[in-house]
Amino acid sequence: MQIFPKIAALKAFLREKKANAQTIGLVPTMGALHAGHLQLVKSSKSENDITVASIYVNPTQFNNSSDLAKYPRTLDLDKAVLEKAGCDAIFVPDNAEMYPKKNSVSFDFGSLDKDFEGKSRPGHFSGVALVVSKFFNIVEPDRAYFGQKDYQQFKVISRLVDELQFNVLVKCIPTLREPDGLAMSSRNLRLSEAERKKATILYNSLTEASTLIKNGQSLAAIKETIRQKWSTSTGIKLDYFEAANRENLIRLDNVNDAASTILLIAGFIGEVRLIDNLMPG
Ligand code: AMP
User: Fold this and answer.
1) With CB atoms 3.0 to 4.6 Å apart as the test, which of 39, 54, 83, 133 could cross-link to 91 if both were Cys?
2) Protein residue with its CA nearest to atom 18 in ligand 1
3) 75, 116, 109: which is closest to 275 by C-alpha?
4) Active-site hit among 34, 37, 149, 159
5) 37 catalytic, yes or no?
6) Are 35 and 176 in contact (CB under 8 A)?
7) What count of other Cβ atoms lies within 10 Å of the Cβ of residue 24?
């Protein structure tokens, strides 16, 4: 596995692969890798000749400086697991390489980035779109892999590719979970033992809501049940629990068609903000 801190060297490596008609799969990550990330690498390896993973904690997508400072960084371990997973190259730029000038470009995705994560983290998706656009220009991948855990991010990237006519196919890979249902996330590393136990409330809320939808309960009643569930435990705080149309991410007042619905949740477990989602039908 080759390690590239510099854009020029990565491009030279890829130019040679492309000249030999080899296809390129890109897996963008912020490191602190877990088995969920490796699912993306596995998918890329099965569909492309060459897999490139990027490890870069992108400052422009953080609207909270403490979240950025405390984001877990485990580069040596990450390199070892990517090597073992059969990744061909990793791109590990620093901020000077990715942002030689202070950025002035920003993105607006209309209704797609105004609610949920976009509402709770203003500017987040603009920063994500900016760095992913840079990755697409640098790597020019045939396919790029994103996780369903960050479903709103996947929809934003899909729109970015569509509107800016990037020549890449974006793929959404199902969320990998711990045995107790908690979605794997780099931020889970920041949870204390007690918080880790409490963190199952995200997935439990989603599965309970999904069952209640199947039983025909109103969305208003379900939201109240979930709010109550969070209020009975200390040290946790529900940010949002909502149902939305899974294509346009417009919030729903009622769930009339579970097959076109997605349930989205975010909450603080101690200081750590976690998100998850589930398709109820
Ligand atoms: P991150 O390093 O958190 O930015 O994540 C990099 C990519 O891995 C994103 O596309 C995430 O959606 C995806 N990802 C994160 N957690 C999981 C998971 N538990 N299962 C599948 N994909 C994931």
Assistant:
1) 54
2) 36
3) 116
4) 37
5) yes
6) yes
7) 22
